[in-house]
Amino acid sequence: MHVLIIGAAGMIGRKLTERLLKERKLRGQPIEKLTLQDIVQPQEPRDKPFEIETRAGDLSVPGEAGALVADNPDVIFHLAAIVSGEAEADFEKGYRINFDGTRFLFDAIRARKYMPRVVFTSSIAVYGAPFNGPVKDDFHLTPLTSYGTQKAIGELLLADYTRRGFFDGIGLRLPTICVRPGKPNKAASGFYSSIIREPLAGQEAILPVPDTIRHGHASPRSAVGFLIHAANIDGAKLGPRRNLAMPSVSVTVAEQIEALKRVAGENVASRIKRVPDPVIAAIVTDWAEEVEAKRARELGFEVEKTFDDIIRVHIEDELGGKIVN
After folding, report:
1. Residue 287: is its pLDDT beyond 90?
2. Which active-site residues does the annotation give?
3. Domain containing residue 164
């Protein structure tokens, strides 16, 4: 079993790598080789239970995708993307990375004439207002950002290439992943993590949107679980509808803060400072507040029960169980 992770230097890519190194198998087969690729050189793991190759390259540059699939990896995780805020700010870069890069990858696989499992990370940004209650599985795609549009195009390509027998694809519409460890990225949703991560570390956090904003979340641990389950699932169970909304925990910003108070105390939550940003507020206001994800749940995809659980996962996985009070 040869596994390729594109976008391996990112947070989810690193955590997926750690999980594969721990489990050492995928789709019921032992992993023999793991290839890690990103725009920057991914860090080579110290533990090497099998062959590991790292590679730096731009997927949107002709030839890079062909080189990545030259030896026919069995499972390909396509995680690489320009995130929402950056894709909105830089139109050309967003389409080059999120659209051209994806198309080059899919065409490179098609040229190899073999049948890998391709797991593509999409986003709930493919949905757009107006909403009337929770988003159901048959909700139409009307993205209202360039990022959402680019992801929707990727979903359509994945479904068509799978239909044509070029590969066996599954697309995951990820909710906002929270709490993201490390430094903030350029995603418009970054504050959802910041208002939890920074206070827990003893730092001030900026809240740019009203407390009433509601959104769906899943922990990084759950996100990796989604990817592993997507790699293992029987494609026959999916049928022609190859793109799935992932389950999430839907809460308002106010409910996030209340959960932080319950888990870590009033002193920690008091480190959140409200500084309105109308640009960020306008972006996230058009995102789905709640996604039903009935199909995904029936297919075995799992997420935390409460936002308190999501905070505890962050404390456990990233802070060694310790909070700065």
Report:
1. no
2. 147
3. 2-175+219-245
